[in-house]
Amino acid sequence: MNNTKTFERDLVPAMRQRSPVRRNTSEVIFSAARQVRLQARTILAAGIMIIVLMPAIWLVHLAFKPALDIFDTTLLFTPTLDNFYALLADGSFWKALGNSLAVSLMSTFFSMLVGVPAAYVLARWRFKNRRHVILWVLVTRMAPPIAFTIPFFLAFRWLGLQDTLIGLTLIYMTFNLAIVIWLMQSFFESVPASLEEAAWLDGCSIWSAFWRITLPLVTPGLASTAILCFIFAWSDFFYALVLTRTQAVTATVAIVNFLQYEGWEWGKIAAGGTLVMLPVLLFMLIIRRYLVNGLTAGAIKD
């Protein structure tokens, strides 16, 4: 019995002395495995990013390539701006860029002007058939664009809005309204109603509290929603192709004019695509912080 107790007394300290070594070994193994997983995720993310950005990178690559070397498979070449000079020489593409900018800004402004108060009403006020109204707002984005082509075409021809900037603005505003209402409703619901109630007690009216209290709190949401509306209007091709002829041609449609029977002017097409892509990229880089905050702000509700 005494020998057993002596053995246990000698064994326990020995096990306690070995445990730190085992603990350190397991920590090293765990740290190495974590580093391997991190490196694997980094490589996977880099590969996905390259795949996603490859069309844009190749477009810019063709834009700076000499016209005679467009189909040359070599990656090394002498960059040139001849494609941009040829594109902007006649001035018609400048007009198309101006049309795209004007239509995108106007449609974004009026979509936000109408959609933000509507989203606030749907988020705060409880009335009959409220859920049905929200569903019908989303229905406008469910059907493909071609489903509305003939009604819009006939209506705009009868109203005299065909081939006008006002007509394109109305169309883009119609489809962007659903985006504004659905996104901004979630942002408004994430703001505690108690803040507005406190403002009411201090003498603010409903819309005064909305303007002074609620609206500043959802500024990231406003920025992200405006960016999305601008991008959808700027990059539209289908409606601009169907409803414009000469006066209201946008930049995306103007690029198609370089696909001619005599041949496709690939240099001008690539240069035009690069110029159309550039404003959106610069705009998003400038306010990317508001875009990220806005897209995540409405995800958590108090």
Description:
- This protein has 302 residues and is mainly α.
- The protein is 75% helix and 0% strand.
- The longest helix is centred in the N-terminal third of the chain and has 62 residues, at 2-63.
Helix-strand blueprint:
Blueprint: H1 2-63, H2 82-88, H3 92-124, H4 130-139, H5 149-159, H6 165-189, H7 193-201, H8 206-217, H9 219-234, H10 238-243, H11 251-256, H12 266-286, H13 288-297
Helix pairs in contact: 1-12, 2-12, 3-6, 3-9, 4-6, 6-9, 7-8, 9-13
Summarize the structure.
This protein is an all-alpha fold.
Annotation keywords:
302 residues; 0% strand
Helix content: over 70%
Coarse structural class: mainly alpha
Distance between the termini: 65 Å
The tally of strands reads: 0
Alpha carbon gyration radius: 30 Å
Shape: flat
Average pLDDT reading: 80
Poorly predicted tracts of residues = 298-302
- Quaternary: single chain
Largest sheet: none
Order of helices and strands: HHHHHHHHHHHHH
Number of helices: 13
What portion of the residues fall into strands of 2 or more residues?
under 5%
